[in-house]
Amino acid sequence: MTTPPSELRAHQWVRWQGQDAQVLNLLPDPTLVRVELEDGTETDIAISEVEVQSARLLPVLEEEFEGPEDVSVPVRKEAIMHGMKVVMVANNAGGVGKTSLAMNIGYELGQLGYRVLLIDADRQANLTTWLGVSPDDVRESDTLHAVIVTESAPLPTPRHVHGVDLIPSFWNLQETEAMAKNRPHRCIADRMDALRGRWDVVIFDSAPALGEIAKRAAIASDYLLVPLTTNIKGVEALSGVRKFKDEDVAPYNPGLRYGLFVPTKYDGRRGTDRSALSFIQEELQGEPVATPLPQRETGWELAARECKPVTLAAPHMPAAEDVRRVTREFIAAIGLEPAEVSA
Predict the structure, then answer these.
(1) 53 or 227, greater pLDDT
(2) What is the rounded CA–CA span in Å between residue 258 and residue 238?
(3) What b/e sequence results for 176-210 when a residue is b if at least 16 CB atoms lie within 10 Å of its CB, and e otherwise?
(4) Which of 17, 34, 178, 312 could make a disulfide contact with 24, Cβ separation 3.0–4.6 Å?
(5) Which backbone phi and psi does 188 adopt, to 5 degrees?
(6) pLDDT digits (tens, 9 = 90+) for 208-258
(7) Residue closest to 192 by CA, chosen among 230, 165, 218
């Protein structure tokens, strides 16, 4: 029994040129699909050339995850979304965990069956590097550059890394930052409609400065994911994030919402951390605030050295459970619910 190619989705098995292949992603070009062949190689092929084998869909495995405020969110391994969610990780301070959250939540969502696109919008290219891609191997045409500086360029074809897709960054994106000021505010947002149906979640990792590229990424987003360190730096950063959302972005995207605030690097033994966390929680009453991420060096450092997400590099360490928990809370906070899988 087969189904039409128009019903292709991630993890589905197809037949192509006499061999089995598994769908990894649909691509910005609606005529192509990326698959993994039996020998483990990945290739992009024409959708018209594949035959979908509905009998070889991965099984639907349903789990109940406890989110914030005991919100129970059903998650299926074969996840088909009602609508794409676009999220920007934002903070006007560096070293608060933006890239760590983008990479690790993105990876965990991919492991749960969601089709994830990560976009590195930071000229420091940390997300790119931490996923094992050298910025030296990234061309200008692989990045957001053309989308920002030209009228009609589509988003570039992403790379597939650790089960998610990545549009990387490189060092010269700082030149793009300077040029972005004179480009339309919706230059990224206008490209997003072409992605709907291909990815379930798009996550932008932004630069600490929250400059022109970050502003345009936020205008293209539905939610902000905001890490806040539990110290004076995190407390002071809160006003900057609010100003960015309410004054810089709201005139162009009034529907932008806070998806989740995540207290990071928390050490409950320190009185300053407890005071900062209490202030953050009180200041953000009515907004979704995650369980604090404890300051754990070992799992995070191991993952950084290996250029892998925490739950891949150190799956049994406490840091890995922290990542799984914040991902469950993120799913609950933005209402990321899969649809039923058709037979």
Answers:
(1) 227
(2) 12
(3) bbeebeebebebbbebbeebeebbbbbbbbbbbeb
(4) 34
(5) -85, -45
(6) 888 999 999 999 999 999 999 999 988 899 999 999 999 999 999 999 999
(7) 218
